[in-house]
Design brief:
Number of domains: 1
Strand content: under 5%
Number of strands: 0
Largest sheet: none
Distance between the termini: 37 Å
Oligomer: single chain
């Protein structure tokens, strides 16, 4: 296997690993209010998250910035819980009219998630000369995995909305409530 493929595969497997379902859970909470019906807003939200986690992944792996892994592992379920609760509260407010603030908060949460990826990534790297290439390949794998997860979430929401006739707001409540409960489980694990 080529060097690139090894790290792309590791990134993909890291985000799609069912043992580390916190990444998938955050994506569920993140996209719950948008699902497949608000595609443009969904794209911007996922982009904000990607930029945030890519930045801290790079900065942390390159030793520019580090945070205690135990704190990061605590903050990740907190971000999931806050995102899910916010989704439930925002359906009753004018929050949708403040997308810049939503994107900024999502990017900030992405920063925290990037630190979680960096702990895993730093443990794998043994050769500093290949670090930048490995980081790029790993991040490509993460993003590909994120696209797969998002496609599944959007596909399920489409089926539930179109076939089962469940309103988008109820899907938001369902997915957000599920994410909040599971995040609390992760927090108190």
């Amino acid at each position: 296997m080529s060097f690139w493929w090894v790290y792309i595969q590791l990134g993909f497997e890291h985000i799609t690993d069912s043992d580390g379902y916190d990444h998938m859970l955050f994506l569920l909470a993140l996209v719950a209010p948008f699902l497949w019906v608000r595609k443009k807003a969904l794209l911007w939200m996922v982009t904000a998250f990607t930029l945030g986690h890519s930045l801290t992944l790079a900065l942390s792996v390159l030793d520019v910035f580090r945070m205690d892994p135990t704190l990061v592992e605590t903050l990740i379920p907190v971000t999931i819980f806050l995102t899910a609760v916010f989704n439930l509260i925002a359906t009753k407010t004018n929050w949708k009219r403040q997308p810049a603030l939503q994107y900024a908060i999502t990017a900030f949460f992405g920063l925290i998630h990037g630190l979680g990826f960096s702990t895993f990534f730093r443990e794998m790297i043994t050769d500093n000369l290949q670090l930048v290439k490995a980081l790029l390949a790993f991040n490509i794998g993460l993003e590909f995995g994120q696209i797969v997860i998002l496609s599944i979430i959007i596909g399920v929401s489409f089926l539930l909305h179109r076939v089962c006739k469940i309103k988008a707001i109820y899907l938001n409540w369902l997915f957000s409530t599920l994410a909040a409960i599971l995040a609390l489980g992760l927090l108190f694990e």
